Amino acid sequence: MRGSEGLTQDEAEARLHREGYDSFRWYDVPGATYPAHHHSQDECVWVLKGEIHFEIRGQRFELRSGDRLYLPAGSPHTARVPRTAGVTYLIGRRTP
Question: 9-94, which class in CATH?
Fold first, then answer.
């Protein structure tokens, strides 16, 4: 889950692209929540600034700046942003 800290957004995007992901930057406001869902493609979330919490099959992951989370296609998960601050992250997606 932990990624290389200290990378710029451009460097992180370049790494995702080398790994075969298409990527885009996303921002969520404090308190944003995503109910249980899944994606039809592999996904990688790479936090640039802030914090976001994921729950995957009962296991909780608290991602902060520099952290990465890989979600294989079809993995059911939820996400929640703490109410204290928003979060900016890259979303990488690739077809399995």
Answer: mainly beta
